[in-house]
Amino acid sequence: MKTKLILIVGLLFCNGFICQTTQWTQVNVPTTFALYDISFPTPTIGYIGGDTGTLLKSVDSGQNWNLINISLDNVAANYPLGAIHDLTFINENYGYMLMADPNFSLFSPNPSMSSLWETQNGGSNWRQVGGNNSSLLSSLNMTSLYVKDTSNLFLGGHGWFYSSAIVEYNNSTWNGNLALSTSANSVWPAEVTDMDFHNALGLATTNGQYILRSTDYGTTWDTINAGIGNFDPNNPWAGTNTVLTSIEIIDASTAYAGYRYNDGDFTMGLLKTIDGGLTWDFDIGSATFAYPDFTCLSSTQNGTVYSGGIINSGGSPSQGIIFESSSNILWNYYYFDQAIYNISTNGLNQTFAVGENGFLVTNSAVINSIEQELSELDFGIYPNPVQEQLIIKFNSEINGELILYDAAMKQTGLTKLFSGINTIINVSSLPKGMYYLMFTNNKHRAIQKVIKL
């Protein structure tokens, strides 16, 4: 009874005291197929994967999207393409995807077989990933993908006997075959549904009540029971037939997990951990009377967390919902006419969500281009290319923060609070390559490409 009362109070609190503040704008795309995943390797370049081999690309920060006609090596041109349900691009040209067979269903308790493909020319041509010891893949039904860089990725799925499995691809070699005893029952396999890493900490969700946890960069994994699986008469809020759908690590201690109940039980907010994934509990702040099926999680560089979901409405077309929190305590939530399947940011604090029937929305007015913002702000950098000292010059005095990102839009650790006209950042410690320097404050946001020699 105490648990019920806490949850009810949480629901009333959330629905009564959180105001909707974000304006979401729908973006037109040239397809009505379901869209399952979105990836921004740079602030200007974005890709979306969807049903029947649908691949969209944007070169203007998500304002406009065009279809890419893809071809698969050693596959006939007229062969029916399956859903692109897991998609990651590392840069404009290099990317990976999981493509299911044409009978793919996002909510099947036993997802169809998928195959792993890579492209080196921006998505036009794809080849299956081979490598040393690739025979490991013959016993793995691939269902999820996590890409670290061009030579290192993890594949999750299930192996024989329906147990979860994770294998690693590192420098052209497949390692491990981690058959983990996570089968919730003998009917459906407990495949890995999503993975995320934060330094050495790795977490993965499964089609069941188990979360997999690694503290050694994914070399070994432990099994954690999230506590929301099989029915427990002493805990009536714990449902049956749980599917953990998504995972997002915020820092070394905090992470969120999304889930749904196949038997129609009510979801009571996202799952949250504050001890690095060892224990999990309901995040009451994200509980609503909508009781959605949570489908995805994402976070931005400024610490805002997003979750998407589906509201099933008794046989009528499903609606979607997006949750947003910048405090890890209070949540805003927004309703949409279409189910939400994935959320991502383009690195400019612009967040995009994709879903059913070609649905795409963004949480801010889409800029025409990076160059447009630069012309309004008008700051320059030199020398570029640079070896040691990067000089940043503005036309007039301004306050804000400078943040340097690598080519994958990950923070390098070089940040500087700035007030004035000119400043200098020492980049001598960085490896050679391409970087992005972002200036941001409450009025402006702009970015410049930097080449480090």
What would you say about this model in short?
The chain has helices at residues 2-17, 370-377, and strands spanning 25-26, 35-39, 46-50, 55-58, 66-67, 71-72, 84-89, 95-100, 114-119, 125-128, 141-149, 152-158, 164-170, 173-175, 192-198, 201-206, 210-214, 222-225, 242-249, 255-261, 271-273, 281-282, 293-299, 305-313, 316-325, 332-336, 340-345, 351-355, 359-362, 379-382, 389-406, 411-426, 433-440, 445-452. The chain is mainly beta and 453 residues long. It is globular.
> Can you tell me the CATH architecture of the largest domain?
7 Propeller
Give the tally of β-strands. 34
Q: Can you tell me the CATH topology of the largest domain?
A: Methylamine Dehydrogenase, Chain H
Percent range for helical residues? under 10%
CATH class of the largest domain: Mainly Beta
Integer count of domains: 2
Which strand order do you get reading across the main beta sheet? Answer: 6-10-9-8-7
Number of helices: 2
Instruction: Return the average pLDDT rounded to an integer.
Output: 83
Estimate what percentage of residues fall within beta strands: over 45%
Q: Which consecutive residue ranges, at least 5 long each, have pLDDT under 50?
A: 1-20, 231-239, 366-376
**Over the alpha carbons, how many angstroms does the gyration radius reach?**
22 Å
Classified in CATH, the superfamily of the largest domain is: YVTN repeat-like/Quinoprotein amine dehydrogenase
Give the N-to-C terminal Cα separation.
64 Å
